[in-house]
Amino acid sequence: MQYAEITGWGKYTPPAILTNDDLATFLETSDEWISSRTGIKERRISHINTAEMSALAAKHALASAGIEADDLDLIIIATSCPDTLVPNTASRVQQLLGSNNAACFDLSSACTGFLYALQNATAQIRFGAAKKALVIGAERMSWFLNWNKRDTAVLFGDGAGAVILEATDQPYGLLNAKLGCDSNARDILSINNFGTDMDRYINPPSELDISFQGQDIFKRAVRGMGKATETVMEEAGLSVEDVDLLVPHQANIRIIETLQSKLKLRDDQVMVNIQNYGNTSAATVPIALCEALEQGKVKAGDKIMSAAFGAGLTWGAAYIKW
Ligand code: ACO
C-alpha cells in the first residue's frame, strides 16, 4: 500500500504589511470594526506575482524535504489568482524552480483549493502515477480587490504555502478527506467581470471585483466545514481528544470560533493566524500549517484535521497523520 507523507513545507508571506489603521486612512472603516467582526489586524500585500510567491514557498519546502526541484514529478498549484490564463501558473513555477520532470497544473477551487490539491496529489501518489509532488496554495488577492469597497477590501491578503509529498509504505500524510460543492449557492460568492459568461459582467466592466453575501457565507461555512470535519473524524475513528491540531481556513475568527465550539475543541487544538494575514484564500491552510510547525505545535505522529470552505461553494475536510 502506498501513502503520501508530507516531508517538506514552506511559506512566503510578503514583507509589506497593511494594517487596519492604514486602511482607515483611505476607507470609511476602523481597526475596531475590522478586528471585532473578523479578527484581522493586518494583511500582507505582494509586489510579486502568484508564481513568484509560489516558487519562494516551494524552495523552502524543497529544502526542508532535502530534495531537488528536478526530483519532482508533479506540481499542483491551487489558486484563484493565476498569473496568466494560458499558459498555466504551475508551468511558470516549474520554470522558476528549474524543475524539468513534473506534470504541472492549476486547480481552481477557491479557499478549499489546497485541500482539493492535497487530495489529488495524494491520490496520484497512491495510484503510482507520481512519487514526489509539490502542492501549493497561493493567492494574490490584492489584485482583485476594489480598494474603494470597504466590505471586501478589509478581508483579504496575499501569500503562498507549499508542501512536498513523497511516496512511502508507512501510513502517513493525508489518510482521509471529504470534499464537496454546494453549487446551488454558487452565486453568493464571485469575482465579477472576468471569464466567458457575459451575463456576469457588471459595471464598470473593466474592473475585477469580488462580491459576496457575507452572512449567508458565514452560516454555510460553519455548517459545511463542521459536517465535513465530523464525517472525516467518524470515518477515521477519531474522537475530539485524538485531534492534536485543527488547521482551519482563515476567513473570519468568528467562523473559526463557532466551528471550534461545534466540534468541542480546546483553544490549544486550533491554529489561528488570521490576525496577521487576513483571508489568503487557498493559501491560508498551508501558511497556517507551516506556522504551526515553526511554532512547535506539530510533532511526529500527530493527528491533524483541516477544514475549508470557499467559492463554488466548495467545502472540505482532511485528516493528516504527521
Ligand atoms: N468598516 C466599517 N463598516 C463596514 C465595513 C467596514 N470595513 N464593511 C461593511 N460595513 C458596514 C456595512 O455597510 C453595514 O452597514 P449598515 O448596517 O449601515 O448597512 C454594517 O457594517 C454591517 O455589515 P454586514 O455585512 O452586515 O456585517 P457582518 O456582521 O455580516 O460582517 C463579514 C461582514 C465580516 C464579511 C461577515 O459577514 C463574514 O465574515 N462573512 C463570512 C466570511 C466571508 O464572507 N468571507 C469572504 C470570503 S469567503 C471565504 O473565505 C469562505
From TrEMBL:
Residues 105-182 form the Beta-ketoacyl-[acyl-carrier-protein] synthase III N-terminal domain. Its main location: cytoplasm. The active site is at C111, H249, N279. It is an enzyme of class 2 (transferase). Residues 233-322 form the Beta-ketoacyl-[acyl-carrier-protein] synthase III C-terminal domain. InterPro entries: ACP_syn_III_C (IPR013747), ACP_syn_III_N (IPR013751), FabH (IPR004655), Thiolase-like (IPR016039). The keyword Cytoplasm applies. The keyword Zinc does not apply. Pfam families: ACP_syn_III, ACP_syn_III_C. It is found in: Cytoplasm. Its EC number is 2.3.1.180. GO terms for molecular function: 3-oxoacyl-[acyl-carrier-protein] synthase activity; beta-ketoacyl-acyl-carrier-protein synthase III activity. Residues 250-254 are annotated as: ACP-binding. Keywords: Acyltransferase, Cytoplasm, Fatty acid biosynthesis, Fatty acid metabolism, Lipid biosynthesis, Lipid metabolism, Multifunctional enzyme, Transferase. GO terms for cellular component: cytoplasm. GO terms for biological process: fatty acid biosynthetic process. Homodimer. Catalyzes the condensation reaction of fatty acid synthesis by the addition to an acyl acceptor of two carbons from malonyl-ACP. Catalyzes the first condensation reaction which initiates fatty acid synthesis and may therefore play a role in governing the total rate of fatty acid production. Possesses both acetoacetyl-ACP synthase and acetyl transacylase activities. Its substrate specificity determines the biosynthesis of branched-chain and/or straight-chain of fatty acids. HAMAP family: FabH. The last Arg residue of the ACP-binding site is essential for the weak association between ACP/AcpP and FabH. This is Beta-ketoacyl-[acyl-carrier-protein] synthase III. It comes from Thalassotalea litorea. The gene is fabH.
